[in-house]
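User: Okay, second chain of the day. Same drill as before: sequence in, structure tokens out.
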Amino acid sequence: MIGEYNSNLSFGQQRVQVVWNRIIFPDGKNLDIDKMQGTDIAGYTGFFDKVNNHYFRIYGNAVLLSLMGAGYDILNQQQQQQQYESPRDIVAANVGQKLSDVSSQTLQKNMDVQPTLIIDPGYKFKVFVMKDMVLENIDDAKGTLAYSK
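Assistant: Same drill. Structure tokens below.
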């Protein structure tokens, strides 16, 4: 069977949408099935097996983002308490601000991660038939099946 799946996943999604386009039989003949839906054994649309929501990555990034923001706030508070700012303090504050901004943007992008859906080999599924299909003609002389396209 030849098909395709939808890779646009959103947070919380646990099923992958699969549609089948063609069946290739052992004798080399094929049948166009025009995007018939794949369902699990129970008949629910899509396949469900294993889901990796990347919680460690998401919450790890949230912790790093919080630490970067807290570090910048501490530097900024110390600088405001001093009446005289040395050039070293000014440079450190600017570098800290830029690092905080860049880190914040990078970590924010890493928090918008799609789940990874894993379908193991040998997964049992069904094809939801949505139109009439002619699968066989029996050749009486040979007793074999002839598939139509």
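Residues 55-111 form one domain.

User: Thanks, on to the next one.
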